[in-house]
Design goal:
Blueprint: H1 2-12, H2 33-65, H3 72-101, H4 103-108, H5 114-151, H6 158-161, H7 167-186, H8 189-215, E1 222-225, E2 244-245, E3 253-255, E4 260-261, H9 272-281, E5 284-292, H10 297-326
Antiparallel strand pairs: 1-5, 2-5, 3-4, 3-5
Helix pairs in contact: 2-3, 2-5, 3-5, 3-7, 3-8, 5-7, 7-8, 7-10
Length: 328
């Protein structure tokens, strides 16, 4: 009788949801630890970013599947604002909020090192940014193929170059990590967000200037020439699909001895006969047009993105250097 009583007592003392030893069962690895803590802390921002990106991709897929180009320009503008919004609302508060409300001091008093805390927060944030921007870049690039066929848009324009390929991903990462660094230094969320807004806007302006005045100059210019004259209607030779003409302000006409003449050549001619006679006297034999083929787009994008990623890595090194000493 006493044996049965002892067994019954032991069985009843085991609380629901515990093991036979009275301990709670261990949670699966992905749902505990620093990763779980960081995700839980910032889950509202992370889910908002992922959800908004999913909706934007769904909109792009719908428009593309319906062969629509309406709304393309407004969508491209919205995507160009994404690095700014991510930097302000995700990057700036990431650590500034913890420093301002005292959470950082609590974290560093635990067994978790500052380096691990920094690494987990930055890695999870970078993962969310990369997933969302890659999805948008792929979707927008797919839509641009349709838009390009119907409008002949040039790949060198900011809305195309900066919203496809690796560029939007690199721009977003640099903007977010720059915002993180600003928040760590200023230690005040609202102030950090305002300063980050200015920082990300400057980044966009500087990047546009860099694209227009330096990056495109690295491309190999291709020249197409003709020797069948220049008609009175000035019909230019057909360039390959997606090509960007680069010599609008340069001499477009070529003479028999290889010299180049400008647009103003024979502009005073009022009739076709007078134009043809003038061109003959000037020895103009055809066109000379410089252009950048669309095949160079991907290489230039990766080169530009690599510069942004190096800058992001530099900011990351600063964060670890600064954070290991002052992140509390």
């Amino acid at each position: 009788m006493s044996s049965l009583t002892s067994t019954s007592t032991t069985t009843n003392s085991t609380a629901p949801g515990t093991t036979g030893t009275g301990r709670l069962p261990r949670l699966p690895q992905p749902f505990k630890g620093m990763t779980w803590l960081v995700w839980r802390q910032h889950r509202a921002a992370f889910w908002t970013i992922l959800g908004a990106s999913a909706l934007a991709v769904a909109y792009i897929v719908f428009q593309r599947s319906q062969l629509h180009t309406a709304g393309y320009d407004s969508t491209s503008t919205g995507l160009r604002l994404m690095p700014i919004l991510l930097g302000v609302f995700l990057g700036a508060p990431l650590f500034a909020g913890d420093l301002e409300n005292g959470t950082a001091k609590l974290v560093v008093t635990q067994s978790v090192s500052r380096t691990r805390w920094l690494t987990t927060k930055l890695a999870l944030t970078a993962l969310v940014v990369v997933v969302s921007t890659v999805a948008l870049s792929v979707g927008f690039g797919w839509w641009w193929n349709l838009y390009d066929e119907s409008t002949g848009s040039e790949w060198t324009s900011g809305p195309i170059f900066n919203n496809t390929g690796p560029v939007p991903v690199a721009l977003a990462l640099f903007s977010v990590f720059g915002g993180v660094a600003i928040g760590v230094v200023l230690r005040r969320t609202l102030v950090a967000m305002v300063v980050t807004l200015g920082f990300t806007v400057v980044v966009q302006i500087a990047w546009s200037h860099f694209l227009a005045h330096f990056l495109l100059s690295l491309a190999n210019v291709v020249t197409i020439t003709t020797n069948n004259g220049v008609s009175f209607q000035h019909v230019m030779p057909t360039l390959p699909p997606g090509a960007h003409q680069v010599n609008w302000s340069n001499p477009p006409y070529i003479t028999g001895d290889g010299k180049l003449l400008g647009w103003s050549t024979c502009n005073e001619a009022q009739t076709e006969q007078a134009h043809d006679l003038c061109m003959k006297k000037a020895d103009v034999v055809g066109w000379s047009v410089d252009y950048l083929p669309v095949s160079q787009m991907n290489g230039l994008q990766w080169f530009g993105a690599s510069i942004l990623l190096v800058l992001t890595a530099t900011v990351t090194v600063f964060l670890f250097f600064w954070g290991r000493k002052r992140l509390a």
